[in-house]
Design a protein that fits this description.
Layout lengths: L5 H32 L3 H24 L5 H25 L6 H24 L5 E3 L3 H15 L7 H16 L3 E3 L1 H11 L1 H20 L3 H23 L11
Length: about 250
């Protein structure tokens, strides 16, 4: 159906704004790399969290415009690989002490490779209501936040952060289903519009605090809840149905 009037304007502006968000996401990733090398890890952390917000909005704008172009999807994947693959791996590499640097580098490289595989798999699969494998946006934000927690007080023992990194890699390349946050918001908006508005406002305030402060504790808590709930839901969906006994006679 041809669009007309405001729908046509929304489609055109939505495409432009979505691309702008994607390039800003990429700029956040590049800026985070520069800040990490200059020793401003906390600012780099803020840029990773900001990139996560931008990544959410560029997809939302593309859906509002009802136009998800192939080039837009490829650009989004390239930006995500930098902001949520390379940058978190770099931060993790800089803040792991103890073993040989080659070992630490290989663990962090596994995260980048897993993220690239996850993005490539997403691009070739048909769009569905769920993700297969942990999205790199969530995995990258979690690894960056875990790294941020490791320098808050005392540095963590090396195996802890390394095992967290490899666990995130496993979740990214797994076939576990993860629900899309946009689907949750759409469902909530249909069922309870008032609750949806309140949820959006509270989420916006929490996101602002996470980006400005930043708050790695909040990101770790939210990410852990998201992963656990989806793992529980997957276990339920794959559980065999209960066998009902027929009454005797």
């Amino acid at each position: 159906m041809d669009r007309c009037g405001w729908k046509a304007r929304l489609a055109g502006r939505g495409r432009t704004l979505a691309h702008l968000m994607t390039f800003t996401n990429l700029a956040c990733g590049f800026g985070a790399i520069l800040l990490a090398f200059d020793g401003y890890a906390s600012y780099a952390l803020s840029l990773v969290f900001l990139a996560g917000v931008l990544d959410f909005f560029d997809g939302m704008l593309a859906r509002l415009a009802e136009h998800a172009s192939p080039i837009g999807r490829e650009l989004d994947s390239l930006a995500d690989l930098v902001s949520f693959g390379v940058v978190p791996a770099l931060l993790a590499y800089q803040h792991q002490w103890g073993p040989p640097r080659m070992v630490v580098g290989l663990v962090c490289l596994a995260f980048v490779v897993g993220g690239a595989w996850r993005l490539a798999l997403f691009n070739v699969l048909e769009p569905v209501r769920e993700f297969r494998g942990l999205p790199i946006t969530v995995a990258g934000a979690l690894l960056a936040a875990l790294t941020g927690l490791s320098w808050v007080d005392e540095p963590w023992p090396w195996p802890v952060l390394a095992m967290c990194t490899l666990a995130l890699v496993f979740l990214m390349v797994s076939r576990v289903r993860f629900v899309k946050l946009s689907q949750l918001l759409s469902s909530l908006r249909r069922r309870a519009p008032e609750a949806a508005r309140l949820t959006v406002v509270l989420s916006a305030l929490l996101t602002l605090a996470i980006v400005v402060v930043p708050l790695p504790q909040a990101v770790v808590a939210l990410g852990a809840i998201y992963i656990v709930l989806n793992l529980v839901e997957n276990r339920r969906s794959h559980a065999p149905p209960a066998i009902q006994e027929e009454p005797a006679g």
